[in-house]
Design a protein that fits this description.
globular, Glycine-rich domain-containing protein, 3% strand, two-stranded antiparallel sheet, mainly alpha, 5 helices, 154 residues
Length: 154
C-alpha cells in the first residue's frame, strides 16, 4: 500500500523548486483564509498555512486536469483547506474564472468514503502538476475521498 511518505515533493532540476500557491494568491486573501482556518480549527498559523496551501494545490490541480474524469480526492486535512477556499465564494469564483477556463469547479460530496487509492493518486498528480506536496497532510489516504468520482467536481 502506498503511503504519504511515498508522495514525491515536486522539483525540477531545470526550473527549480515546486510552485507554491502563495505565488498566485493575493497576500490579503491568503492572510484572510489563514485567519479563517485558525478561527474554525485548532490550528496555529503554521498549520493553517500548510492546510491552505495544500487546499489550493489540490483545487488548482483539479482545474488543470478538467475533463479527464480522474476522480481526484483530497485527504481529510487537504479537504479542510479546499472547503475554506470554496466557502469564500467571491474569491473562489474568481479563482475558477482565472484557472478553470471560466468554468465553476463544483463541490459534490458523497456520504460514503471511498478506499480506492484516489487520495494518494491525487497527491502524486498534485506533485506532477508542479505544486509543493506536504506528505503528512495526505496521510489519511486509506479512508478518505468522499467526492463524486469520475467527473469535473470536487
Amino acid at each position: 500500500m502506498a503511503t504519504a511518505a511515498d508522495t514525491p515533493v515536486a522539483t525540477d532540476p531545470v526550473t527549480g523548486p515546486a510552485r507554491s500557491p502563495r505565488d498566485i494568491v493575493p497576500a490579503d486573501l491568503w492572510e484572510k483564509q489563514v485567519g479563517l482556518l485558525m478561527r474554525d480549527y485548532p490550528y496555529d498559523s503554521v498549520m493553517a498555512t500548510r492546510v491552505l496551501g495544500q487546499g489550493y494545490a489540490y483545487l488548482l490541480t483539479a482545474m488543470s486536469l478538467r475533463g479527464q474524469g480522474l476522480g481526484l480526492a483530497p485527504s481529510k486535512l487537504v479537504d479542510i483547506g479546499a472547503h475554506t477556499i470554496i466557502l469564500d465564494t467571491v474569491a473562489y469564483a474568481e479563482l475558477c474564472d482565472k484557472y478553470n477556463g471560466g468554468h465553476f469547479l463544483h463541490h459534490v460530496p458523497k456520504v460514503e468514503m471511498k478506499n480506492d487509492g484516489s487520495v494518494i493518486k491525487t497527491a502524486h498528480l498534485v506533485a506532477r502538476a508542479g505544486w509543493e506536496v506536504d506528505p503528512p497532510l495526505w496521510e489519511d489516504a486509506a479512508d478518505c475521498g468522499p467526492c463524486h468520482p469520475g467527473n469535473d467536481s470536487h
